[in-house]
Amino acid sequence: MSHLWQSILTDGNTQWVLLSTLLLGIASGVLGSFALLRKQSLIGDAVAHAALPGICFAFMFIGEKNFFVLLIGAAATGLLAAYTIQLITNTTRIKEDTAICLVLSVFFGLGIVLLTKVAQMPTGNQSGLDDFIFGQAASLVGRDVQLMGLTAAALIVITTLLFKEFKVSTFDPQFARGIGLPVGLLNFFFVSLLVITVVIGIQAVGVILMAALLITPAVSARYWTDSLRTMVLISGIVGGLSGAAGTLISTLGKGLSTGPFIVLSATVIFIVSLLFSPKRGLFSIILRRARNDDRLAVRFVLKKVHVWRDKSISEEFLFQETNISKIRFTRVINHLMKHGYILKSDGIISITDSGTMKAEQFRFVDEMVELKEMYPSELGSLDITWIEKQEEEALSKDQLKKLQSKMSEIYTQNPFLNIKVTAGKGGRRYEL
Predict the structure, then answer these.
(1) Angle at 323 between CA 308 and CA 300, to 5 degrees
(2) Fold match between domain 2-280 and domain 284-351
(3) How far apart are CA 114 and CA 250, in angstroms?
């Protein structure tokens, strides 16, 4: 740990690499959010693989490893790959995923062939071009890192300035055209930004893993929010943290590649999001399903007790009739007893007055749901969800009046329906 802090505080190269991977992660997360929502995530993968032949062509042309020139070559073949995918998709019957697979395999195969050719050149063995396959941030020099950092910062600024335009063209391109936005030009510009993001990141992350840095932060952010603005913000933070964490971990040992650790850091955050996000996390889903199953079991058991309210039923007989697990049945019985809906004496279950009203409420809601399914056009606008949200055992006078008013309106429009909602003794009970 002391070695890590010493590198951060004293090693200028570590500081530059850390800053560039931080900015690269933020830019990848921001643009990756739009790529995910546009269903263009795999285009980043194709572009990353297609950058390899461009790098090799640029090296063969100048004969030395000039990072800026190599990036120009990578950008050229990356843009060519991206536009080739769009051309194939728009002009043929081939679907986008098939087009991506074709372009990716062809360009990457060409890159491997050219990489072999470069290795046969007099200076090819010392070129270090194979670092672009898996990434090697430590091989970057100060000027390379400055170029990466400035380009990543520019990408973040441009995306921020064009946020509204990208948002509209992503979710509703027809509306965007209607208000005069150049959707085609925006798509062209977005793909160009995506290509630039991939190109500046391949030295640090590699052509194979760069797609993961685009997709993983965006997917992680999607688990936490339904707002695009918040998603882009979270995705940028996740990407930045992944870039910084991967860089710092790679400094702990000699020969550790930065790219794989960046991707693994992003994957850890994704797993945490997958498991623990409050809305879409697996644990949240399991808990919601368990609560819903308990709610349905409470309804079912109480209605069963209500049906046999004039008979003496044992707890064991009720358990056999309900056909639910013993653990859930015990939990349901305790819940009903706690709320005063049922009583248990010497193993015999009996229903209370409040339990009777609650059971009638459940029955009423079930019958209303069935009627809505039978007459969807006539009763589709009838909202009954509020009935079970109220805490009392049955509907109050005001609530009954509200429901009766709504039903009267439906009767006027559909006189053939014969449904009546009436208040019982004290105005707190009702029947269908």
Answers:
(1) 50
(2) no
(3) 29
